[in-house]
UniProtKB/TrEMBL annotation:
Membrane found in the keyword field: yes
Keywords of this entry: Membrane, Transmembrane, Transmembrane helix
Transmembrane segments: 21-43, 49-67
Originating organism: Candidatus Methanophagaceae archaeon ANME-1 ERB6
Protein name, entry field: Uncharacterized protein
Length: 94
């Protein structure tokens, strides 16, 4: 049990080092909700199959909504970044 938790901590450390903070937080939440809490028997929402699927569906839905919000934010910010760089709106950076 101790070895598993140490490997999970090492995995989280690697994720935080490699990926942006926003994705690291999402992965940490997923690991805690679906792996660590059931191991510690602190997850009453995962006791039966239906509850697990419902939790998984809600979690994935929230991540998809967050991705959509990030995409919308990027669409609004990108023209400003290109304007600051002095490039016309239609050009892309290479």
């Amino acid at each position: 049990m101790k070895e598993v938790l140490l490997k999970l901590i090492e995995l989280l450390k690697t994720i935080i080092e490699r990926y942006p903070a926003n994705w690291a937080i999402k992965v940490i939440m997923a690991i805690s909700v679906f792996i660590i809490l059931p191991i510690l028997k602190m997850a009453p929402y995962l006791r039966d199959y239906f509850s697990f699927l419902l939790t998984l569906l809600v979690f994935c839905g929230l991540i998809l909504l967050d991705l959509k919000a990030e995409g919308d934010k990027a669409k609004k910010i990108m023209p400003l970044i290109l304007k600051l760089k002095g490039k016309p709106r239609g050009e892309t950076t290479e």
